Amino acid sequence: MMTWTESAAAAVRKVVGRSPEAATGLRLMVSTGGCAGVVYRMGLEARAQDDDAVIDLGEAKVFVDPQSLPLLDGARVDFVDSGTASGFVFDNPNALNTCSCGKSFSAATC
């Protein structure tokens, strides 16, 4: 199970609410790439796929595919806005190693 801070949930709701398309949620997935092996990817989606896990954040949802779900299990997602930089921050217990920017990681199941 993933957890989302209120700050992260609010950021998802804001992005989905401003979408010019008919987005109802944010797709979160893990795919091969980045300097550590796998990378987090996000994008707006109109609806969940049949086999997606769906996390309800109120007026918006997060869709996670079955291949990414084990790599995100137990992760805590936050959103920070420091004035000089903003973005989602992942505290993922499945990440054995991370790159310096925190956008990619390696995991035992990769």
Describe what is shown at a glance.
The protein is mainly beta and 110 residues long. The chain has helices at 6-17, 69-72; strands at 3-4, 25-33, 37-45, 53-56, 61-64, 76-81, 86-91, 97-98, 104-106.
Description of the structure:
This protein is mainly beta. The chain has one domain: HesB-like domain (Hypothetical Protein Aq_1857, Chain: A), CATH 2.60.300.12. It has 2 helices and 9 strands, in the order E-H-E-E-E-E-H-E-E-E-E. The strands form 2 sheets. Strands 4-5-2-3-9-8 form a 6-stranded mixed beta sheet. Strand 2 (25-33) and strand 3 (37-45) form a beta hairpin. One of its GO terms (molecular function) is 4 iron, 4 sulfur cluster binding. One of its GO terms (biological process) is iron-sulfur cluster assembly. Residues 2-103 form the Core domain. This is HesB/YadR/YfhF.
Spatial strand sequence of the major β-sheet? 4-5-2-3-9-8
The rounded distance between the terminal residues' Cα atoms is 19 Å
| Element-level helix/strand string | EHEEEEHEEEE
Number of helices: 2
Q: Provide the domain count.
A: 1
Largest sheet: 6 strands, mixed
Question: What is the fourth-level CATH superfamily?
Answer: HesB-like domain
Strand content: 35-45%
Low-confidence stretches: none
CATH topology name: Hypothetical Protein Aq_1857, Chain: A
GO molecular function, one term: 4 iron, 4 sulfur cluster binding
Domain Core: 2-103
Protein name: HesB/YadR/YfhF
Which helices and strands, and how do they pair?
Elements: E1 3-4, H1 6-17, E2 25-33, E3 37-45, E4 53-56, E5 61-64, H2 69-72, E6 76-81, E7 86-91, E8 97-98, E9 104-106
